[in-house]
Amino acid sequence: MPKPLRMSRCTWVAVWAVLCVAGIAATAALNAFPAPDPQPEKPVSAEYIADIETQLAKAKREGHDDGVLAFSRTRAGADDCSDEILDHFSDDR
Q1: Higher-confidence position of 87 and 65
Q2: Could you tell me the sign of the dihedral formed by the alpha carbons of 50, 56, 60, 61, in that order?
Q3: Could you tell me if 88 and 71 are in contact, meaning their C-beta atoms sit under 8 angstroms apart?
Q4: Single pTM value for the model
Q5: I need a surface site. Which of 11, 31, 55, 59 has the fewest CB within 10 A?
């Protein structure tokens, strides 16, 4: 069985110092460039919200009113508008 490599205390301190300097340099490099501007939010169409409300009403009529509505497919080119939908329907609860 081979003997493990032994490193002196001075070597450990040198490795630790190099890692600290590398971390500080990486942080400085990341902070040097500003974050890109966020994309403007696109409004959710009233048609899409009306469709969701229709599906919720249908679920209530059928007795499946557990407050959960799942979509199995998305429309082609649909944007992620989950925050707007949650804001719209958060008053129901």
Answers
A1: 87
A2: positive
A3: no
A4: 0.35
A5: 31
Whether pLDDT at 62 is above 80: yes
Q: Give me 82's structure tokens.
A: 């989950």
What would the DSSP string read from start to end of the chain? -PPPPP--HHHHHHHHHHHHHHHHHHHHHHHHSPPPPPPPPPPPPHHHHHHHHHHHHHHHHTT--SS----S---TT----HHHHHHHHGGG-
Banded pLDDT at 74 (limits 50, 70, 90): low
Residue with tokens 């069985």: 1
Quick one: which of 92, 91, 87, 55 has its CA closest to 73? 55
Q: For 17-58, what is each residue's pLDDT tens digit? A: 999 999 999 999 999 988 777 777 777 778 878 888 888 888
Q: For the chain, what's the residue count? A: 93
